[in-house]
């Protein structure tokens, strides 16, 4: 969780984050029917203190919509090839509205069938994966998600990237409490964290990434310019990335990570990556006393000094961000204002000549 906030930046309330995000997306040609899902994800990331997936990522969203790498007006198409299977084609557009379109059908199918899956293809970066599984768990369902990304991790023993940072996320519903959310990358750190360090002019910790020559680097620019991400736990991280690739790319019919264009530049057209979600109604399987057994498991973790549950910092982050707002670098704020203002000016020109 990237909860560090720059000194001397621009302070924004979450309401102002929402307003700025909406203006920038709409000004860059994103359809109003798609904008809401993207904006909600950005605001949620900032509220949770995951700034690398909030406003820090918005300039890329805006630029890709503006130049047409992502079709901001694409309307996702849903079908159900089998009972319990839901499929959404994002049509080269944003992932967020495609996922939002599929989640109600996924939850309905899981409650009817006991288990269901949602495959999203021809998609794009979906932001914080935990945000999506948490919403499934809020319906009382156990949720699991796999997401692939453009290749940036080499297999163990290799030097050429094959896998993306390929995150996996889990959300577990809890009686009377927020769901437990575990969201982790297959690499030591999500690539977006390196982007944030570059935006702030800060070095990255040694061990996060390698440069194009395969040497460890603390320079975020060198890591992003032809470098590779370090897999978490070596062989284990690379193995996890392969598992995610099978579910999120191969099973969904999306682009493999090696075939996906970058999330970071304007080259190559839509990445057309994929997301895969599984939702399970646990009632028929977990049996009597399942709530107590789950809390016993969690208690065995939290009862140890220094130990905590995954995602437990989100609650305190949400309270802090709601009360204090966030602070972003002046340069990032100016960039977002420029996108919003340029688009608004262009729209006024259309109205004057229309």
Provide a descriptive summary of the structure in words.
- The chain has helices at residues 14-27, 32-47, 58-67, 95-113, 129-137, 191-200, 220-224, 235-250, 283-286, 290-302, 313-324, 330-353; strands at 10-12, 77-82, 85-89, 115-123, 142-147, 168-174, 177-184, 209-210, 216-217, 228-229, 273-280, 326-328.
- By secondary structure, the protein is α+β, with helices and mostly antiparallel strands.
- The chain has two domains: 1-67 and 312-354, Orthogonal Bundle (Hypothetical Oxidoreductase Yiak, Chain: A, domain 1); 77-187 and 231-311, Ribosomal Protein S8, Chain: A, domain 1, CATH 3.30.1370.
- The strands form three sheets. A seven-stranded mixed β-sheet has the order 2-3-4-11-5-6-7, sandwiched between helices. A three-stranded antiparallel β-sheet has the order 9-8-10. Strands 1-12 form a two-stranded antiparallel sheet.
- Helix 3 (58-67) runs parallel beside helix 12 (330-353).
- The longest helix has 24 residues, at 330-353.
- The protein is globular.
- Mean pLDDT is 91; it is low at 348-354.
In short:
The protein has 354 residues and is of the alpha+beta class.
Secondary structure: elements and pairs:
Blueprint: E1 10-12, H1 14-27, H2 32-47, H3 58-67, E2 77-82, E3 85-89, H4 95-113, E4 115-123, H5 129-137, E5 142-147, E6 168-174, E7 177-184, H6 191-200, E8 209-210, E9 216-217, H7 220-224, E10 228-229, H8 235-250, E11 273-280, H9 283-286, H10 290-302, H11 313-324, E12 326-328, H12 330-353
> Could you say which overall geometry the principal axes of the C-alpha atoms support?
globular
The CATH class of the largest domain is identified as: Alpha Beta
Contiguous low-pLDDT stretches (5 residues minimum) are 348-354
Q: What is the topology, as strand order, of the major beta sheet?
A: 2-3-4-11-5-6-7
CATH homologous superfamily assignment of the largest domain: Malate/L-lactate/L-sulpholactate dehydrogenase, NADPH binding domain
- Distance, first to last CA: 47 Å
**Percentage of residues in strands:** 15-25%
How does the helix and strand content classify structurally?
alpha+beta
Counting DSSP H or I runs of 4 or more residues, the number of helices is 12
Question: Based on the structure given, which CATH architecture of the largest domain is correct?
Answer: 2-Layer Sandwich
Largest sheet features: 7 strands, mixed
Q: How many strands in all?
A: 12
Rounded radius of gyration (Å): 20 Å
- According to CATH, what is the topology of the largest domain? Ribosomal Protein S8, Chain: A, domain 1
The helix/strand series, from N terminus to C terminus, equals: EHHHEEHEHEEEHEEHEHEHHHEH
Helix content: 40-55%
- What is the total domain count? 2
Average pLDDT, to the nearest integer? 91
């Amino acid at each position: 969780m990237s909860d560090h906030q720059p000194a001397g930046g621009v302070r924004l309330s979450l309401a102002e984050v929402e307003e700025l995000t909406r203006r920038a997306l709409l000004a860059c040609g994103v359809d109003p029917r798609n904008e809401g899902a993207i904006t909600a994800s950005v605001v949620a990331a900032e509220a949770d203190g995951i700034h690398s997936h909030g406003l820090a990522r918005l300039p890329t969203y805006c630029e890709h919509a503006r130049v047409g790498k992502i079709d901001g007006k694409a309307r996702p198409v849903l079908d159900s090839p089998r009972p319990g299977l839901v499929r959404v084609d994002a049509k080269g557009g944003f992932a967020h509205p495609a996922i939002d379109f599929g989640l109600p059908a996924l939850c309905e199918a899981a409650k009817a069938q006991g288990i269901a899956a949602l495959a999203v293809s021809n998609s794009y970066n979906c932001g914080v994966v935990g945000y999506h599984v948490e919403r499934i768990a809020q319906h009382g369902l156990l949720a699991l998600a796999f997401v692939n990304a453009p290749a940036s991790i080499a297999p163990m023993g290799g030097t050429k990237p094959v896998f993306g940072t390929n995150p996996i996320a889990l959300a577990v519903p809890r009686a009377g409490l927020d769901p437990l959310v575990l969201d982790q990358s297959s690499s030591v750190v999500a690539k977006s964290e390196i982007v944030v360090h570059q935006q702030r002019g800060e070095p990255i910790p040694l061990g996060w990434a390698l440069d194009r020559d395969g040497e460890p680097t603390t320079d975020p620019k060198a890591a992003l310019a032809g470098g590779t991400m370090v897999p978490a736990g070596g062989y284990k991280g690379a193995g996890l990335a392969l598992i995610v690739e099978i579910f999120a790319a191969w099973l969904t019919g999306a682009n493999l990570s090696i075939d996906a264009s970058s999330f970071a530049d304007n080259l190559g057209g839509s990445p057309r990556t994929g997301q895969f979600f599984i939702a399970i109604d646990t009632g028929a399987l977990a049996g009597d006393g399942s709530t107590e057994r789950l809390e016993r498991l969690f208690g065995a973790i939290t009862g140890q000094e220094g130990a905590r549950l995954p995602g437990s910092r989100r609650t305190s982050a949400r309270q802090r961000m709601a009360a204090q707002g966030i602070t972003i670098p002046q340069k990032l704020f100016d960039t977002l204002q420029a996108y919003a203002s340029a688009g608004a000016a262009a729209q006024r020109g259309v109205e004057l000549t229309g």
